């Protein structure tokens, strides 16, 4: 027995041809995971097993809730600074940090070993053939991880069996020769005993191999059942998506029919509107919102959930309504917004002039059905500034960025009503609704507006219809920056200086407007300041393009210090929240909440007056949430329906259809006169592309000429004059101290005189 043990120990380590898998890759421990800029690194419990790295908020969650799983087969592992390393898998990047350098090194070693094992297993599994339906990589890894481990062990045992058989046969031959040489009976008996034991050892090994093979067959049969179940679930999901799409189309048709004839649908004489309860409860369970700005991930859900819960009161406390709330809008369609609302009444003056107003166009030529692969153009532009990527007009819409800025005024009546409000808090509600309404036209508008040429302008005079007139100018080309100024005869002035930071990230395009929007009401002097959220266009590579708005808007009344924080929730496939949801709280200068705002950025916004607040429970990690008891919500704003045939007219709204309509007397730099944009609107896209290239070459030559003049001035010791806009100039805002490009005046006077001598020739 001792000689046999020595022989077994001397056997070489079993290896598979082309496949060497060390011990099982399992590792557990605490790591810090980067979430977002507000929360930074958060402590998570990580578990590495079977080529998958999973993480949980606590160890107790391992039994029921996994916050995320990272497959390592195609992951990239990069070691960063002290105790820091980065995992990149499936287009997602995870920044992780250990508590010490030693712990970091252990994790990196374990991850690299697990990645090597997972990669070999994937390659090994790709050689399998059969009629099984292919499954996604993550599902395949999850369902076959145990099977691959069993197969690996079985092949190791097979190799050992071959070696045992080989050396066992040699041993038997040696013992047979020894038996022939030795004569004593006692020695022969011992040799026979050893021979029998060697034979028994080989038989036992074969039995073990057979048992493992039987177990593997059973496991593989279960694997086929799992794959069939997954295939069935995918088919059911696809069928459900098609059903939802059909329901959405039917809902859109019904809504359009209702808006065309609302009175036939809204007559409910036997119904008390105040008896209906409105459920506006923010979920507080785990997993209801996301704490990380990561695409379509519902994990770590609790950490960024709203810090308040709203509960609507029923009709038994209607007598408690304050006088200030009586001026808030009642629910209903837009034609009912002004019902008994003194500070929201529409301006009915000048009714006789209504018949004299200009009739503006309500359609443009249909968009041609030209197909072009966006990915073929943009695959070499990942990470670049979007404004520097040369693109054909096929991916544009026939409007410039200046016209898109002006399109924010589509719901200017919200500011007209806000100007008549006596309460600054009610005024804040309407200003917040106006800031949200500017995104309502973008829900189907995935095309890119034209980048304005340097010095390009756009005016919009709507004093006749809406009491305002607007002027904007492109004041910088790289980075692209535009200045905008609006004055209304109905009591308000708006101005903004916006720089666009756009990046192409491979799967999506992010557009981040930098800069603030200023609004001042003439009678009260209230001055509001806010910024815009990030717009993201998804599915650049494959799939249907869709746009999302995400981030926060902080609106500040610099006069009264009232504030409103609006949160635009990013879309998540797994979330049960209403898509495109917007929520917010209006607080006075002392931090007391007065109104809850809720709605969606593509449909409507409502406000509910707070009558009572209290500290509640249900927050994550011991944090309590504030429970607000509110009155019935009032409709602040509702989106206008799109014109007929909008899907063939770039999904333009009624205002957008008129923005590029020719006007007499505009400046020669006006966007309406831009030739490539006008050719595109007419459907002549090939001609538009040629004209667009000519304009860009002309602008490039002008930039080189200015650079040459600047270099010459430097050589001569003269002061270099930078480009100066025609109608705007850099100034410091008196209220905020912000340096921004503001209207210097003179445009409308020049238009009246038709004196455009100061305008450059850009077209």
- Low-confidence spans: 1-24, 126-135, 264-305, 315-355
Overall form = elongated
Structural class call reads: alpha+beta
Give Rg in angstroms. Answer: 35 Å
Distance between the termini: 98 Å
Features:
763 residues; PH-domain like; six-stranded antiparallel beta barrel; 27 strands; 31% helix
Condensed summary:
It is a peripheral membrane protein. Its main location: membrane. By secondary structure, this protein is of the alpha+beta class.
Describe this protein's structure:
The protein has 763 residues and is an alpha+beta fold. It is 31% helix and 24% strand. It contains 12 helices and 27 strands. The radius of gyration is 35 Å and the shape is elongated. 28% of the residues are buried.
Record the SSE blueprint:
Layout (H helix, E strand, L loop, with lengths): L1 H8 L17 E10 L3 E10 L2 E5 L11 E4 L4 E4 L4 E6 L2 E6 L3 H26 L10 H45 L3 H76 L47 E5 L61 H5 L17 E5 H6 L6 H7 L4 H14 L10 E3 L6 E6 L5 E9 L4 E8 L3 E13 L3 E7 L2 E5 L5 E4 L3 E5 L7 E12 L5 E6 L12 E7 L5 E8 L3 E12 L10 E5 L3 E5 L15 H6 L15 H7 L3 H31 L12 E5 L6 E5 L3 H7 L10
């Amino acid at each position: 027995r001792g000689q046999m043990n020595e022989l077994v120990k001397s056997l070489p380590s079993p290896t598979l041809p082309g496949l060497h898998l060390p011990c099982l890759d399992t590792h557990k421990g605490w790591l810090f995971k980067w979430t977002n800029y507000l929360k930074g690194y958060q402590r998570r419990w990580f578990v590495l097993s079977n080529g998958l790295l999973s993480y949980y908020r606590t160890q107790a969650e391992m039994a029921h809730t996994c916050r995320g799983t990272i497959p390592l087969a195609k992951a990239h592992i990069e070691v960063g600074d002290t105790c820091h390393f980065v995992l990149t898998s499936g287009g997602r990047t995870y920044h992780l940090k250990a508590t010490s350098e030693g712990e970091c090194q252990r994790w990196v070693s374990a991850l690299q070993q697990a990645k090597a094992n997972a990669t070999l297993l994937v390659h090994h599994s790709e050689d399998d053939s059969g009629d099984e339906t292919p499954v996604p990589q993550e599902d395949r890894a999850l369902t076959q991880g145990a099977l691959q481990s069993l197969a690996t062990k079985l092949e190791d045992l097979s190799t050992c069996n071959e070696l045992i058989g080989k050396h066992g046969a040699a041993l038997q031959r040696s013992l047979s020769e020894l038996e022939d040489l030795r004569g004593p009976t006692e020695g022969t008996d011992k040799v026979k005993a050893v021979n029998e034991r060697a034979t028994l050892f080989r038989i036992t090994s074969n039995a073990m191999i057979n048992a493992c093979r039987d177990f593997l067959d059973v496991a593989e049969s279960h694997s086929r059942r799992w794959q069939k179940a997954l295939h069935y679930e995918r088919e059911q999901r696809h069928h459900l998506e098609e059903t939802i799409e059909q329901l959405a189309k039917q809902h859109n048709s019904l809504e359009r029919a209702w808006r065309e004839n609302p009175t036939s649908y809204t007559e409910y004489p036997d119904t008390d509107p105040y008896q209906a309860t409105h459920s506006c409860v923010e979920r507080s369970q785990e997993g209801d919102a996301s704490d990380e700005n990561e695409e379509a991930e519902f994990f770590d859900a609790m950490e960024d959930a709203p810090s308040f819960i709203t509960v609507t009161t029923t009709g038994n406390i209607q007598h408690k309504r304050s006088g200030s709330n009586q001026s808030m809008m009642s629910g209903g369609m837009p034609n009912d917004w002004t019902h008994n609302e003194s500070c929201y009444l529409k301006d009915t003056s000048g009714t006789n002039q209504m018949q004299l107003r200009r009739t503006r166009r309500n359609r443009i030529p249909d968009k041609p059905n030209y197909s072009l692969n966006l990915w073929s153009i943009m695959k070499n532009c990942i990470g670049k500034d979007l404004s520097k990527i040369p693109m054909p007009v096929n991916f544009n819409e026939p409007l410039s960025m200046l016209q898109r800025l002006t399109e924010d005024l589509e719901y200017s009546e919200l500011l007209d009503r806000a100007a008549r409000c006596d309460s600054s808090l009610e005024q804040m509600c309407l200003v917040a609704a106006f800031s949200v309404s500017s995104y309502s036209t973008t829900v189907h508008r995935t095309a890119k507006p034209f980048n304005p040429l340097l010095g390009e302008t756009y005016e919009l005079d709507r004093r006749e219809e809406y009491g305002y007139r607007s002027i904007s100018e492109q004041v910088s080309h790289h980075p692209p920056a535009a200045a905008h100024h609006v004055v209304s005869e109905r009591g308000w002035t708006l101005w903004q200086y916006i720089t666009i930071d756009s990046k192409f990230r491979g799967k999506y395009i992010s557009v981040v407007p930098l800069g603030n929007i200023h609004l001042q009401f003439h009678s009260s002097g209230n001055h509001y300041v806010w910024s815009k959220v990030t717009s993201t266009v998804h599915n650049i590579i494959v799939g249907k393009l869709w746009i999302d708005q995400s981030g926060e808007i902080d609106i500040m009344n610099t006069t009264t210090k009232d504030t409103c924080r609006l949160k635009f929730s990013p879309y998540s496939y797994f979330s049960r929240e209403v898509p495109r949801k917007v929520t917010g709280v209006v607080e006075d200068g002392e931090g007391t909440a007065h109104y809850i705002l809720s709605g969606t950025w593509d449909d409507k916004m409502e406000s509910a007056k707070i009558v009572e607040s209290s500290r509640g429970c249900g927050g994550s990690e011991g944090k309590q949430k504030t429970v607000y008891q509110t009155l019935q919500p009032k409709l602040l704003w509702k989106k206008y329906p799109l014109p007929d045939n909008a899907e063939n007219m770039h999904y333009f709204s009624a205002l957008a259809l008129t923005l590029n309509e020719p006007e007499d007397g505009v400046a020669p730099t006006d966007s309406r006169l831009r030739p490539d944009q006008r050719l595109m609107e007419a459907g002549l896209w090939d001609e538009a592309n040629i004209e667009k290239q000519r304009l860009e070459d002309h602008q490039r030559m002008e930039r080189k000429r200015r650079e040459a003049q600047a270099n010459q001035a430097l050589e001569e010791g003269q002061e270099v004059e930078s480009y100066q806009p025609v109608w705007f100039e850099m100034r410091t805002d008196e209220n905020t101290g912000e340096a921004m490009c503001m209207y210097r005046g003179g445009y409308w006077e020049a238009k009246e005189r038709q004196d455009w001598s100061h305008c450059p020739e850009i077209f």
